[in-house]
Amino acid sequence: MNEYINLTLENIEHEHICCAIGDRKHKEGVENKKEWLKRKQKEGHVFRKLNARGKIFIEYEPIETAWVPINGKNYEYIYCLWVAGSFKGKGIAKELLEYAINDSKQKSMSGICTLTSKKKKPFLGEKKFFEHYGFKVVDSIGEYELLALQFDKNETPKFRDNARKMKIDEKDFTIYYSPACPYVEYEVKELTAYAKENHIKINFIKIDSLEKAKNAPCIFNNWANFYQGEFVSNTILNANSFKKLIK
């Protein structure tokens, strides 16, 4: 039987948070993510992981306080469900999702939702996997879709109007990012240094509050790339990948 751990204020200091395990360059990002988690746990944030050294976890919280530009009431929002490497194909994703669904029902929530896409995209869950459990599309922005599993007849969540734009006024390369991802701090510093050395202008806009997250100009705020005012991708960039992208 698989053993799972929910992060708490009591155990978070000595437990890893799955994503950036043992990589010293992401130490600051991990510390920032843990501090973010400590604050979010008071709002009902759940981070549940397999008791193993790997990228195997689910992360969710009430939609009202979730750092996503989505409006809703009495729903849980799944930020991430990730099962990587040799742990795939062992029913772990099933157990993690079923835990979140049952936990939501026990809390008398109206449903649970998550972000997917019509075709497989990096950093997003598999649409078919969620559909197997009864999740249905309740809103969309282009190729991106909001899936929800409803427990009652209350209104389903919807993307906020500001997120539907997927555009900004700034024409220079602009990156929105947040401490919700442990990888971003290092890459922001690397890209800042690269831009300075090569006399390139890159704007960095940190999403560091619920208000900023709810009012973000696109559906991604862990990391979102814009150029010429248009959304480009949610791929986290380092100096090399930035050079390839701008070419």
Strand order of the largest sheet: 1-2-3-5-6-8-7
- Highest-level CATH class of the largest domain: Alpha Beta
Estimated radius of gyration: 18 Å
Number of domains: 2
Hey, roughly how much beta strand do the residues contain?
25-35%
Helix content: 25-40%
Arithmetic mean pLDDT? 94
Helix count equals 7
Helix/sheet category: alpha+beta
| Major β-sheet annotation | 7 strands, mixed
Q: Say how many strands there are.
A: 13
CATH architecture of the largest domain: 3-Layer(aba) Sandwich
Q: Shape, please?
A: globular
Report on the structure:
By secondary structure, the chain is an alpha+beta fold. It has two domains: 4-160, Aminopeptidase, CATH 3.40.630.30; 162-246, Glutaredoxin. Helix content is 27%, strand content 27%. It contains seven helices and 13 strands. A seven-stranded mixed sheet has the order 1-2-3-5-6-8-7, sandwiched between helices. Strands 11-10-12-13 form a four-stranded mixed sheet, with helices on one face. The longest helix is centred in the first third of the chain and has 15 residues, at 27-41.
